[in-house]
Write a structure and sequence with these properties.
By secondary structure, the protein is an alpha+beta fold. It is about 45% helix and about 10% strand. The strands form three sheets. A four-stranded antiparallel beta sheet has the order 1-2-4-3. The protein has a four-stranded mixed beta sheet with strand order 5-6-7-8, with helices on one face. Bound molecules: iron/sulfur cluster.
Amino acid sequence: MEKETAVTARIKFLIQKIGIDAFNELVAEEQKALTYHRYKIDTSKFDEPVLASGQLPAGKNEAVNPYKFELWKTTNVQAQKQEGYVVVYVRVPNGNIGSFTSRSLIEKLRPVIGDDVRITINQGLQFRFIKPEHLEYIYSVLETENLAAAGFGSVADITACPGTDTCNLGISSSTGISTVLSEVIDEEYPEFLYNKDISIKISGCMNSCGQHGMASIGFHGSSLKAKGQVVPALQVLIGGGVLGSGEGQISDVYTKYAVRQGNKYFYELLKPFADQTTLTNEDFIDWGQEEKFATAIGVGECAGVMIDLVATLILEAEEKLDYSKECLDNKAWADGIYHAYSAFVHTAKALLLQQGVQCNTQHGILNDFDKHFTAKGLFTETNSFKELVLEINKNEPTEEFALSYFQRAKSFAAFAKQHREQVVLAENVA
Ligand code: SF4
C-alpha cells in the first residue's frame, strides 16, 4: 500500500503544480509506448477459492473471554454473499504483522477458512468462507496471537503509514500516535467500537500514504518551533471520506456534519490545542519515543548509510539491463524497453552524483546530463542524451525498436563504467 499511495501523492502534487490539462497531455504523450491500450480480463480463469476441511484440531477451542467474543462477533463478523458462510475481519494494529505470526495464524486457521485471504484497505485482514460454528475457534486462535481486538473499521481502527519508523520523509511519528489513540478509544470510549461512520487516518507527512485526506479525522505529521525548540506536531484535517457511487471528498474542512458546522467551528474548537504557552517538557518528545524530538533526514527503509551510492546506482543499472535482456528473450518488448529506460536513468544519475550534481526528477536527470556531459563533450554518442532516452515515447514497442534501444542503453552503461574507473583512478593518483 505504502508504495502505491506514495506514487498517488506525487501525482497529486504534480497536478497541483502543472494543472490537470498539462498532466493529461503528459499522459497522452506516454501512451504510444504502451503494449496494450485496452486489456480484457478473463475472470472465468480466476481460481475458485479452496474451501476448508472444517476439521477442527483436537484440544481447547473456546474463547478465553466470552463477553469479548460476543462483542467481536458484532463488530468483526459479517454474513457472506454466498449462503451459509460468514466473513471475519481482523484488526491489525498499524498493519504490523510479522512472518512468524502470519504463518502460525494460517496454520491454525487453515482447517476453517477459505484459502482466499485478503488485505483490507485499512491495513486489516479478511478471512472468507467460514462456517458460523467455527467462529469461536477462530476467535480463540486470534486471542492467542493478540489479534482479537473488536471494532474492525471503527473509530478505534486507525490507519497509519509507517512514518518515522521506517520512512525518511516522516516528520513526526504516525504509528506512535495511532497506537496511543487506539488504546484510549478501546479502553475509555468502548462505545466507539460500534461506530463505523467516523474514520481516523494518520500520515507521518503531507504525502498522504496513511490516506489522511480521505478520513473523517485526518492527521499528518508536522513540527513547530516553540520556546526555541522543535516540537512534534500534527496538522488536523476534517471531513474527508467516501461518499459512495465512486465519489469521495478530500478532508479539509466529517462529511455532512463538517459541512454543516463549517470550517470556523472546528478552527475555534481546536485552537486551544495549538497554544504553545501551555507546552510541558513531555510535549517535546514524540509519541512512542524517549528522546527529545528533532527534525533530521533519516535513513529510511534502506539502512545502507555508508554505501557508495554511485557504485550502487551503476550496479542497479546493470541489474535493469539484465531484466531488460530477460524480457527481450521472452519477446516482452515493452517491458524490455522500460527496463532499458530505467538503466539509462540510473546510469546518468550515477555519473551526475559523481560530479556532485544533485538529482531529483527523471526529467531533471536527462537535462542535467546534457548540461554537464553532452554539452561539455564528455559524452559524444549523441547531441542530445535527453532525446535519445525519450525515444521511448516516440516509438511503438516493436521488436526492432526494443533491440536497438537495449543496445544503446548497454553501451551507455559501458561508457559510464569506463568513465567512473577513470575518475576513481585520477582521484587515487591525486
Ligand atoms: S511519512 Fe510521508 S512519505 Fe513516508 S510513508 Fe508516511 S505519508 Fe508516506
